[in-house]
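Give me structure tokens for this 259-residue protein.
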Amino acid sequence: MSTDIPYTNTKEAVIAIKNLYKSFDENKVLNGIDLELHKGENVVVLGRSGSGKSVLIKIIAGLLKPDKGIVSVFQEQIDLLNFKELQKLRLRMGFSFQSGALYDGMNVRENLEFPLVRNQRKLGRKQVNDAVEQVLHDVGLLQTINQLPSELSGGQKKRIGIARTLILKPEIMFYDEPTGGIDPITCVEINNLINKVQQQYNTSSIIITHDLTCAKTTVDRIAILSEGKITKNGSFDEVFESEDPNAKAFYNYNFIAKK
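Here you go.
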């Protein structure tokens, strides 16, 4: 399968991946990945289940080591960092999980306070309160501050999960299926929030999604991951007006098969 000419951008690359390989026994998951994320950019990584999207994110976060290749975040090669250096770098990255990943036994305030107090121990009570209320205001859910996760809708849990990530002011955001399992109206709210986060917090983001409406609404660029390689890399229109069979399959599923 032929691959595209690598995408180029004059902005600073906050993530740079070169010739990345990763296998598990005989299963070749990533087979020569080249990908960059630039400052202030939203990139959607699109791929079938089992295509290696989650493995890619884990390698970027330093949770898995590559078999071959270079993964740099803020010009730091991830697999060469010691534990302390890696922990410090991870504080500049935020992760928004599909479920929201909230602690059921804590109310919203406590869920947001937890990462802040753990990582910035010198903050006073007023500073903590102000930070919690600010991020809740930014995601439009200040009124939920004393509620438990069990009292929230699926969409609210996702937005609170994003707020908990934003409280540490990350420079890079990773979104895992941000519109998965929620209704179309709430999907629009989440898509708008992703755009707001990009603009207000000046984040660079990698978004893993199968939802092309989410991709089209939030994306600066799409990278299609198939058979361990990036087979298409460009704007939404460049990707889906191409003859790439993987692009056509995703487009047909989202906009034709569902009609």
